[in-house]
Write a structure and sequence with these properties.
The protein has a single domain (about 1-219), classed as Spore Coat Polysaccharide Biosynthesis Protein SpsA, Chain A. It is about 40% helix and about 15% strand. It has helices at about 25-45, 75-85, 105-115, 150-160, 180-185, 190-200, 205-219; strands at about 1-10, 50-55, 65-70, 90-95, 120, 130-135, 165-170. The protein has a 7-stranded mixed beta sheet, sandwiched between helices. Helix 1 (about 25-45) runs antiparallel to helix 6 (about 190-200) and helix 5 (about 180-185) packs across helix 6 (about 190-200). The relative contact order is 0.16.
């Protein structure tokens, strides 16, 4: 079994731009890195033979084989991630956008893939957060357009057409908007992501004034 994590180097102005505003580009990059680090920690906590970071950019990830993403649209990148994976291992791909993922949930997905030829975890926005194939084959993803409200349904249809009725994993919400980020933080309040998000969010003027007043009284 191998787990692939599709990710982008957390550089200000290149990641999580839909979080700006209220976050600054630097704050959005910090939040993206926290999500990535939390995700990598979860993958490390699950027993699998191989862990791969499929990366756009550069990032240190101890315990992971780093595999560069190919250029092109997202469906091409996803397909190449499966084509470049070890063909002898069942392959589960996730992204860096679900920091609320837990070892128990990921472990459940891994176990499900050992029993089913394909697994698919949908997201509320119509996309998907996890896709697993016992036999990795990029052709099953290539041409399925992403970032649409029917991407998940189309991907499920593609798998079904290939005779791989996918086992349905629990639904998870991707972090695309600030509302998504706050919802994910509520589900994992002790994680790195929640702490960094709280630090990155601007403080309302009245709250800032109260904090300054407390600081003066304490001094």
């Amino acid at each position: 079994m191998q787990v692939l994590v599709l990710a982008k180097e957390p550089v200000a102005g290149r990641v999580k731009t839909r979080l700006c505003p209220p976050l600054t580009p630097e704050g959005a990059a910090a939040v993206a890195e926290a999500a990535l680090r939390d995700t990598l920690d979860v993958v490390r906590a699950v027993e699998v033979r191989r862990r791969v970071l499929v990366l756009d950019g550069s990032y240190e990830a101890p315990g992971f084989h780093v595999q560069p993403q190919v250029p092109g649209p997202m469906d091409v990148r996803l397909a190449a991630a499966f084509d470049d994976a070890d063909p002898a291992l069942a392959t589960l791909l996730i992204g860096m956008d679900t920091p609320q993922l837990t070892p128990a949930l990921l472990g459940g997905a891994v176990d499900a893939l050992l029993r089913h030829r394909a697994v698919l975890g949908l997201a509320p926005d119509g996309g998907w957060w996890a896709l697993g194939l016992q036999v990795p084959d990029g052709a099953l993803l290539r041409g399925v357009r992403t970032s649409r409200d029917d991407t998940g349904a189309r991907q499920r249809e593609r798998l079904e057409q290939a005779g791989l009725a996918p086992y349905a994993l629990p639904q998870l919400r991707d972090v695309d908007t600030i509302q998504d980020a706050q919802a994910a933080a509520l589900l994992a309040p002790s994680g790195r992501f929640a702490r960094v998000l709280a630090d990155a969010l601007p403080v309302a003027p009245e709250v800032a004034a109260r904090n300054r007043a407390r600081g003066r009284r304490a001094s």
